[in-house]
Amino acid sequence: MKAPLYLLMKSQPYDDRARCCDDRPTSVTIARRAWPLRWGRKARVAVPAAMAVLRRQLAQPIAERIAIGTPVVSSGGRELGVVREVVVELGSGRTSYAVSDQPSGRGNVRLLPRDLVRAHRDVAVVEEHVLQRLERRIA
Q: H or E stretch including 112?
């Protein structure tokens, strides 16, 4: 007679003495709180970036010279995409146009500085040599 399947699958009793370590998570105690250090580091990064944005905006306020949804082309006729947003770059503090190459806005996004993009009739134009310089800098 064969043994029932559940007897073959029954687990063996577990022996705790054979284990090398404990399953309980280790607790780490810190003598001081971590939050002042973390917030101090964040402030050291955020304050200079905010000041750069403020200085740049005082010199040249954000204004939409080119409307959102305007197609963007290079001076050579290459289509680059559509203006999605006017954004502020935190590193430099200058305003840029976020240009997406997909109609849904989910594709690649290029940040084109506002002072390098000019309006021409119903499209925005970027000089080809400026665009190549920006693409080289990104790559």
A: strand 109-113
